Amino acid sequence: MKRLLLAGGIALSAVTGLYAFRSVGQGSITGKVTPADQANAVWAVSGKDSVTANVVNGAFSLAVKAGTYKIVVDAKEPYKDALLENITVADGAPTDVGEIKLQK
User: Fold this and answer.
1) Does residue 2 sit within a domain?
2) Region at 98 (left for phi over 0; alpha for psi -120 to 50; beta for the rest)
3) CA–CA separation, 76 and 38 (whole Å)
4) How many structural domains is the chain composed of?
5) Residue 49 has pLDDT above 80, yes or no
6) Residue 73 sits in which domain range?
7) Alpha carbons 42 and 82: distance in angstroms, whole number
8) Strand, helix or coil for residue 95
């Protein structure tokens, strides 16, 4: 009986532990920047929260909570920074903003 209770307690703890690290309300924002080598980083800003990611071969991906974001692309000179507003991310769903063309 003690072994059964111990095994049940361990199993319950394991299941609880797995759900404790589950991402709730997690989504993502992906996209591409052109020219590919002219952006340093991309920021997603929502209220007081912000997330950043490096641009690798022109592509980026940001793991974010569900909500509405402003996307800022930090461009290298002579290009100008780019701004996208009102990007909506749904719970558990990826949001592709497509291609962001940097302007000089």
Assistant:
1) no
2) left
3) 5
4) 1
5) yes
6) 25-101
7) 9
8) strand
**Contact criterion met (CB below 8 Å) for 38 and 75:** yes
Sheet of 39-46: strand order equals 49-54, 39-46, 67-75, 82-89
Q: What is the pLDDT of residues 27-37, one digit of tens each?
A: 999 999 999 99
Sequence-distant (≥ 6) Cβ neighbours of residue 91 within 8 angstroms = 25, 26, 27, 66
22 pLDDT exceeds 70?
A: no
Phi-psi label, residue 59: left if phi above 0, alpha if psi -120 to 50, beta otherwise: beta
- Asked if residue 34 belongs to a domain, the reply is yes
**Would you state the structure tokens that stand for residue 64, as one six-digit string?**
């974010």
Distance in angstroms (rounded) separating the CA atoms of residues 90 and 74: 25
Specify the CATH number for the domain of residue 34.
2.60.40.1120
In a domain, 16, yes or no: no
45 lies in some domain? yes
d(CA 103, CA 47): 27
